[in-house]
């Protein structure tokens, strides 16, 4: 089983749409088409093996179900995992004559997805870096205070120029790697070692970005000093009890329910007090 040029082009196009907010939007693009669970169906339709695509997508989605991108930093690029990792996993499963629903196939898909996802961070940061160039074009237009130029420039910066970034760092790599097949992963790991200067520089810069994400989150959710205690409680659960995001979310939902019930009780207390006062006045009238 192989991937034709037409199939590779379609995979590259969906890789662009999955990460280009100006087209599909963040909700439709990154949070829908970019998820392995949805992308598995898309890849299966393109490659003519829907069952294997869905099974592989579900297996890989479990690995990245709690993946977040605070501050724009990513530990793994799900765009690459979905539209490069899933096609390569399907090729590997068919090449080794494995049952797509077997544990061996799921382990193979997860391993390939992790390898491609880690390498895909380079593509993610490359896209973000080139997009900064387009943003500088927009800022230059804003500094002129020429509103006619601004109205012409902003759509160009938001919807047209980003396609260049995504074609270079999404479309072209996806098409090339999918056409090369499974051996491309090993080749990329040999020529782009994780301990090389280029990779170390990218990941060092990227490791500083979570501080920006945490600062943005604090600015949005913290309105009183006491809120810092609630905010730190989640980090305590993760650091001391080693709970994952799902477990922390369940605990948070429990405390949210308690707070909701307390607030409901506070709101009901004046109504009860008012009703009691009204009864006393009626008794005095009698």
Automatic annotation (TrEMBL):
Q: What is its main location?
A: membrane
What is the annotated localization of this protein?
Cell membrane
Q: Which residues form a coiled coil?
A: none
The record's Gene Ontology cellular component field reads: plasma membrane
How does the record say this protein sits in the membrane? Multi-pass membrane protein
Pfam families xref list: EII-Sor
Q: What is this protein called?
A: PTS system sorbose-specific iic component
Q: Keywords assigned by UniProt? A: Cell membrane, Membrane, Phosphotransferase system, Sugar transport, Transmembrane, Transmembrane helix, Transport
Q: Which GO terms describe its biological process?
A: phosphoenolpyruvate-dependent sugar phosphotransferase system
Task: Give the residue spans that cross the bilayer.
Answer: 40-68, 80-96, 108-134, 155-177, 197-217, 229-258
The species this protein was found in = Olsenella profusa F0195
